[in-house]
Specification:
globular; 403 residues; single chain; 8-stranded mixed β-sheet; 3-stranded antiparallel β-sheet
Length: 403
Amino acid sequence: MLKKVQPKVWWAALAVLVVLVVSWGLVRKSKSNPEEVIVGGRVMAKLDPVPVKDPDAETALKISKIEDIFRRKKKAGFNGNVLIVQKGQVLYQNSFGFAHIKQKDTLTSDSRFQLASLSKPFTAIAVLKLIQEGRVNLDDSVQRFFPEFPYHGVKIDMLLSHRSGLPNYIYSFTDSIRHGKKYPDNMDIMDWYAKVVPTPTPYNRPGRSFNYCNTNYCVLAAIVEKVSGTGFGQYLSDQIFAPLGMLNTFLVTDTSSAAVKYRTDGHQFGRRLEKDYYDDVVGDKGVYSTTGDIYRFYNGLTKGLLLDKKLLDEAFKPRSFERNGIRNYGYGFRMHIKEDNTPRFIYHGGWWKGYNTMLWVCPEDEAVIIVLGNSYNRSTYDLRELLEVIHGGAKIEDIEKDI
């Protein structure tokens, strides 16, 4: 009898042992990777800031001053959300006004804003990921991906740094070219440039000077689609949003119920602005997100979860010196530079159809400021007082005019 039972006992004991080993391994993994969580069956980075608990006198004073600044911004007409984080702790987070002014529905931290040109950093990182994988090179010409593109000598690094000299697509095409297509996408823009006669006049020769132009990032998004073989929004979701746990971030062209949930409207002079003819052209704009997700993006990016340090340093490297001054541009990021040409501030703002947005990073102070507005108001970009509070009272040069 013992001989008949013994194999079963051994198999049972072995099964128990396997379960214990696997369980121990999972526990050990969870302890060694506290920055990971599982959402929908996928492992994602946990990148949220933590609330300030029992702030010291200096921190409490900072918080009080920030609260006063935003009370005044609200009186000046600011309608939107704000998140300010320093050293991984939330100094301030609040919502002011309405998601849809006509409906008077109050904004919350879940409200999603069109980031306008603050979408450009996402496009830049998408391209740099393809470069990291060896699928794209910085010195590739646009013709490698779109042979009929009429502007020769334009390379990927020029598009990323706004040094291509390309004309703005918004002003490039007559009604006769646009006829029959109400909302063109990026591939339509590439096709129009290839076929239109005469070819729209470029702003400058490739590489000659910095000229901020949305066409650069429209073309980059088209290249991402061509190389990846998938839609730009899907690529962003798979390669950036999902891995960082950015569950509230979608492209404007995504009309699924999950994507349009909590989406706000853009307003100007108290009125909702209708969809623009070029709204479905993305890369230069088009990302909808929250303050929390934008923080996850920057936090994950700088923790090395998307790019290796060498390539990330390239994104934060100033590339335009034909004009003297502190303002400069890297790959998808604006910056104010110090005398040694390293960034003092890293930032990007945006404006599109009533939305005005700003991500401002102070590496020296380990501070991140995110301000998203959906009713156009200049106070979104006026950060000087905030920077002085965060830095500890030192005077900051006039920076609010530089969007």
